Amino acid sequence: MEPTVPPVELKHATVERLMHYYHFISEQVETSGTETVTSGEIAKLVRMDDTLVRKDLAAIGVRGLPRVGFRCAAVVNAIHDVLGFGRKYRGVIIGVGRMGSAMASYKGFAKYGLEVCALFDLDPFKMGLVGGGNEILPLSKLPEVVRDQDVSVAILTVPAEAAQEVADAAVAAGVKALWNFASTSLSVPDGVFVRHEHISVGLAELSYLLKQSSDTA
Amino acid sequence: MEPTVPPVELKHATVERLMHYYHFISEQVETSGTETVTSGEIAKLVRMDDTLVRKDLAAIGVRGLPRVGFRCAAVVNAIHDVLGFGRKYRGVIIGVGRMGSAMASYKGFAKYGLEVCALFDLDPFKMGLVGGGNEILPLSKLPEVVRDQDVSVAILTVPAEAAQEVADAAVAAGVKALWNFASTSLSVPDGVFVRHEHISVGLAELSYLLKQSSDTA
DNA sequence: TAGATTGTTAATCGATTAACAATC
DNA sequence: TAGATTGTTAATCGATTAACAATC
Question: Is A215 in Cβ contact with B195 (below 8 Å)?
């Protein structure tokens, strides 16, 4: 039996838009139990053109019905499948400071397939402490854990100064992707994916926005 | 005296790229003390075309020198000025759970002009506790604080279910921008800026990436 | 049926890249 | 001077939007 979802190559921006639809439609279904949604409705709420919504949905193989729209469940399932939320993959958190601790006890990762299976820190005084059900290990154990538990992702919540060093260790240990929460650039070999979650980009946008509005005012 | 930096309207993507240059050049200066940098060098490290780098720098009024490149200090200062990092503005954190606590004690906001001046929570048992030097207040105090301390930004670190309600309260209290860390969409009136810091978008990208690479393998 | 909404092709728009003269 | 690098115009590319026939 063929999969309902065709193989697709999605752009970064498309993934972001799909997540937007995903949230929006899931919320709609939860709160008002709607069965169907039109591209126009989605477009209005996410403030974009309805054609683009239809294009995006067509790209992931969802078909709508004229006069009716799209089945909410079909859209949500298609996004779920295309983005691979049903697959399980494992990650480790490196750097158990405030941010790392918060991440370690966050329960929302599993919904998208990510299981955090170990915590690491550079500080020897933290060894053995427990966060979110996992013991904190020394970085020297990283290669072993990555290999034995088939870890794909290293979540970096270390200070900016330590980020490159830790990234190198994670890459050497064999992770396929880095999820970087440190405010710094990282250089990694080709083939390793890096997702930067720079809080400073958000800050920059806010700062710029407020400057603009005060300039205009 | 005219400002050295012309008034500019920057796109979201441009702000993001500028931050990338900003980090990269600052790091270079710190570690190797370089005085100048060429568009080609920047381009290589941030993996884009050098023409685009020159366009971006031209847009914020930085001029380079043929055969030499751009003065690092000039670039960093121009970005600093255009994005308004020198201006002070105030924010409040609403929702002092793990994430909110981590944010409350984060020292990196000031570098970009943001000062966190108050914490709020819905939980009456948290009232009076202190995080990052600020006492936790009930949400009922929000309008007063926003007015008296000229608060521009509300940082939302509440659970997704509470996000819309809290957003409404913040907008009613008069903030100009919301910085949303809850995994949910928000609807706000026109004129209020929302920056979503959806961790689930990052998760979606990782999930999709790992799915793709396992499909190809 | 009539009409709203889809799916898709064509047109537009903007962003990126190529090319190259100007310049230090 | 020779040549590397800038600044900028022109060309390309891709993404968004408009238009509209197909369809339920």
Answer: no
